[in-house]
Amino acid sequence: MTAVPADAPDVVRSAYAQLAVTDLTAARWFWVGILGFHIEYEDADFLCLRGTDELTHHSVVLRRAAAPALDHIAYRVRTPEDVERAARFFGELGGPVRRVLKGKGTPGVGDAVRTIDPLGFPVEFFYEIEHGERLIQRFDLHRGAEIARLDHFNIATPDIPAAYAHYTSLGFGCSETIEGDAHELYAAWMYRKQTVHDVAFTCGAGPRLHHLGLATHESHKVLRVADVLGSLGKQHHIERGPGRHGVSNAFYLYLRDPDGHRVEVYTTDYYTGDPDHETYRWSVHDDRRRDFWGNAVIESWYKDATPVLDLDGNPQPVADSLLDETAAKVGADGLG
Amino acid sequence: MTAVPADAPDVVRSAYAQLAVTDLTAARWFWVGILGFHIEYEDADFLCLRGTDELTHHSVVLRRAAAPALDHIAYRVRTPEDVERAARFFGELGGPVRRVLKGKGTPGVGDAVRTIDPLGFPVEFFYEIEHGERLIQRFDLHRGAEIARLDHFNIATPDIPAAYAHYTSLGFGCSETIEGDAHELYAAWMYRKQTVHDVAFTCGAGPRLHHLGLATHESHKVLRVADVLGSLGKQHHIERGPGRHGVSNAFYLYLRDPDGHRVEVYTTDYYTGDPDHETYRWSVHDDRRRDFWGNAVIESWYKDATPVLDLDGNPQPVADSLLDETAAKVGADGLG
Amino acid sequence: MTAVPADAPDVVRSAYAQLAVTDLTAARWFWVGILGFHIEYEDADFLCLRGTDELTHHSVVLRRAAAPALDHIAYRVRTPEDVERAARFFGELGGPVRRVLKGKGTPGVGDAVRTIDPLGFPVEFFYEIEHGERLIQRFDLHRGAEIARLDHFNIATPDIPAAYAHYTSLGFGCSETIEGDAHELYAAWMYRKQTVHDVAFTCGAGPRLHHLGLATHESHKVLRVADVLGSLGKQHHIERGPGRHGVSNAFYLYLRDPDGHRVEVYTTDYYTGDPDHETYRWSVHDDRRRDFWGNAVIESWYKDATPVLDLDGNPQPVADSLLDETAAKVGADGLG
Amino acid sequence: MTAVPADAPDVVRSAYAQLAVTDLTAARWFWVGILGFHIEYEDADFLCLRGTDELTHHSVVLRRAAAPALDHIAYRVRTPEDVERAARFFGELGGPVRRVLKGKGTPGVGDAVRTIDPLGFPVEFFYEIEHGERLIQRFDLHRGAEIARLDHFNIATPDIPAAYAHYTSLGFGCSETIEGDAHELYAAWMYRKQTVHDVAFTCGAGPRLHHLGLATHESHKVLRVADVLGSLGKQHHIERGPGRHGVSNAFYLYLRDPDGHRVEVYTTDYYTGDPDHETYRWSVHDDRRRDFWGNAVIESWYKDATPVLDLDGNPQPVADSLLDETAAKVGADGLG
């Protein structure tokens, strides 16, 4: 973890994402039944979900809506004062800043600030959140993919250097990148907590949410979710994998929920908490960067993503990407 | 698999065990909820259970009774004629032979023959049995220890050479033994199907049932059942393990059901189907024979076992063991 | 296992394959270093390899040659008399029959008979074979994919009904098939030992060897071999997978050796030893048949295969396939 | 991670332990061959070892000596100034403080400060350390237990509240405790990095080193090291386990190296980085606290430990424990 710039909020970690889904029953089948999330709260409009290792109220919130979208991603900050600091920080950046008082926003969350960040994403910062019963050793309740915790947000954005600069200004470190011959950035993985990432950028039309990264404890749990989907004749929910990422070393499986939201069920990354942790740089020409085994990336994985909403719930406009990683035709991994 | 002696029935495999249990609800919690058996049939008195890989009606039958016991172990034979052959074979041995017509005995089983074998055990031979829906790839229904199939019976008997001789006369091969300095037999593992065993003999007071061996597919499934029992505060159902057996190479965990019946949940053995498959002999002084990692055997594991019933449902008398393996005090493994 | 027809040799199992390779050093890197086979015998021309669970001399033999090919597949039979029976059986079928005396053929193998079967494949039958040291529990020597044993031959052949009929005449049972709407056979899996198969038929130009199926004990061992190949920058040896087959339930990974010979490293199948074991039939339209998770099959997997030699070492002519499974365009699995 | 007290050094994590061993060849067999550590540096007197995920020079240093002992444990601090802060902090506590210049102390480490802490342990603080080649994805070099990283020190100390107070003054958080009926502390687990612990205290005669905690990625890697030791007839190096700890949720195996130094090979803990992370308290009467499956603790595990040296290399005197956890006779877990 790098030091926090003086004016920036001290972000602890990626905390939760709120997704708009069109059918809470179908979403529940997927997120609870298949992924194994635990329901911490539900009403007619919301489902608040938590992984087995998570001690705070939720890491995924599903909101009933007319169309699929990302409401916002949310970062937890270190102190209540950091919520104020977030308001000032994003106010100075010129974005809209909206205070959401406890009880008025997402269930379980205390006073929060929401903004549209310079990349066009709706982002919430909060300190206070309710805690939940410890489920770490409630093995009797673990099921499906046995998701332990939300690990990261992967966002599709047209301008990777801009995304890198913005998150650097928030004190995020950079664990890995994909770079071209002239060191132009195709993708970057950035962190506050001591893992490979809290947020990563996929070069593409944006702002859109590429996927939520969900950690589970061992590789057999990743395989099981694929087996179960096959059993049910729901194998079309499997988009890509299983495979080993070059970047991050994650053993991964990409799924699409009933609304098309993408999740990565994965296991294994590594500790990044040392003060001089160095960025590991992949060449865009290394066909192991996206799949360490050289398997081809599915086209939809590069192209599809979830639209994001502004603070009033209207879709954010989408801009085309400046670079196209799929044009780097190398081995099985490029799309050609 | 060795050739079948001319007068003996052609045994295919250990097929099922029928256990008397005192509380079907409690037994169901254990066998269905914890072990993951599927219920193929149930009524007020019987619960017929099947593992995920098993295609015949059941491999474990639980019968409601006043006291815990083994009703009988059952072997499937190759043809209907082998049922007749079994009747003649055991009749000539002087034991009681009882014909149990389809519909009059255990649910799902066709015409059968029951006897008390020379070792004092109640044994059934049958050919016909109902088939069940294929669950191998119904991963959505797999739960608990995800038991795939019954693998073997382990019986406690005072005279191991006599047990060895009897099963040899039935055409069983011998995969492994535990032997003393003068090659006196302390234990033996014998098979018809192409695994390490269908039946094994533990030297001890008998006739009693030592345990049922239940196969699951990977080691993490063995660990999970222990985790779940700990979660529920039911850790006293764990008697021994997990560990690796020297004999058979099984990665094992021994559990006791609510009535004290012992099961071994295990994974990994090896193919024994070649015609010249050789017996592998362990010295009783090798402290890896019972646990390849040298961990001590729990005393109850050697001492406790399930009483067996005669054909009229009365307890068979029990004789003391001729040899005592626990007297072989070697390293961690002997009890001293 | 079905009964053996009166005139047919009693085949115990698929025993070994002898492959012609162009560079023994490169082949050794792959088969020993990556797959983890143990070298039982080597000289300037031969490398005899054995898996960790195998107790006979070898299951794979690599022979130094000018061009890659299959020398022969070999089945072990139950008795020395069955070798004679094989000679008569194939003689009556009209194929060439050649006796190979102990010491004159493949190292470690006793008197054998070689023939070209009606499908055009070079096949050896033998009873006698040297035994090797037990490695099952020599975990200190296990490495790479920790291959436990050769499980099956998968052969590419143009006429699946003809292949099915021939192996049925040898007493093989059929565990699974892929069938069209009019029950036309696209593929079949047939066995003598109590697993899903000893031999399987892939519809394609033939006679050619599609792959050797190699069993390992747990899914993480399958994943490890892919990781190691990625580490070494040898990911192009990975052709397809990992994935779960619908047919056979195997968790698989297909690799190509330095000469292009294909191997399947897999884990998990199921017991087929009951006398009334039923064939499980997949529709060619079920996109889970080849990958239970609906992932697309790589085109080379259907198209490439190893040429086979006649008894004099000359390439067998290849005929085109009668059916084309890849024309069944269903979901991700067909090629279109 | 809690905030760092103003006068205390900002500790990043437990970084390495330096052990005195009597035979570097024997130690190398164990630490490199069995555990899978990579040798980063060696000379006639030192062996510097690193796990597969570790990017700094070493996490374990073995020093050739006449008798087994702990030279020192070492914590990495956030900045060079924190090394100075450590010197002041421990100087004010009245302990000896010795500066060890780069090149004069442990190979690979920059300027450091060594002290004897109030608990009697030799402790080093450093910022600068050489980096090593990234091995995370060098799967071809991973072997044995595939140790990924040193996770924690477990120290035997007679006065747990004193240990707790000392590490609290250094800004360590407390993840878990074992407590008596009156909340008297029997044991505590404390952390700076975002895992369950960097240091833990076992109530016992001390100062002594109880064990080094070594993380590996999946449970099958823990099992493999036990299998390999059994293969080699070295099963006496296995002291306890495998099992699941109640505290920390680690799946563990305790080994003793050729000098008797104890290591825990384990997998799975959980994230503790949130600012309001709460301490989880176990009752000393819960027989799942030390083994979640209720298996008995081996007596030597409570009694044996490694002596520690003062800054001149002389053994520190040992005081008896104030409390005896083994007197809490509960179920299988107490020793009675």
Describe the protein's topology.
The structure is a homotetramer of 336-residue chains.
Chain A (H helix, E strand, L loop, with lengths): L10 E11 L2 H11 L3 E5 L3 E5 L9 E5 L4 E9 L2 H13 L4 E4 L11 E5 L5 E5 L22 E9 L2 H10 L3 E7 L5 E7 L7 E5 L4 E8 L3 H13 L6 E7 L6 E6 L5 E6 L12 E4 L15 H5 L2 E2 L29
Parallel strand pairs in A: 1-4, 5-8, 9-12, 10-17, 13-16
Antiparallel strand pairs in A: 1-5, 2-3, 3-4, 6-7, 7-8, 9-13, 10-11, 11-12, 13-18, 14-15, 15-16
Beta-strand residue fraction of chain A = 25-35%
Write out the CATH superfamily name of the largest domain in chain A. Answer: 2,3-Dihydroxybiphenyl 1,2-Dioxygenase, domain 1
List unreliable stretches of 5+ residues of chain A. 330-336
CATH architecture designation of the largest domain in chain A: Roll
Which two chains form the greatest contact, residue counts included? Answer: A-D, 33 and 33 residues
Sheet with most strands of chain A: 10 strands, mixed
Q: Oligomer, anyone? A: homotetramer
Mean pLDDT of chain A: 95
Q: Briefly note the CATH topology name of the largest domain in chain A.
A: 2,3-Dihydroxybiphenyl 1,2-Dioxygenase, domain 1
Distance between the termini of chain A: 38 Å
Shape of chain A: globular
Structural class of chain A: alpha+beta
CATH class identity of the largest domain in chain A? Alpha Beta
Task: Compute the number of strand runs of chain A.
Answer: 18
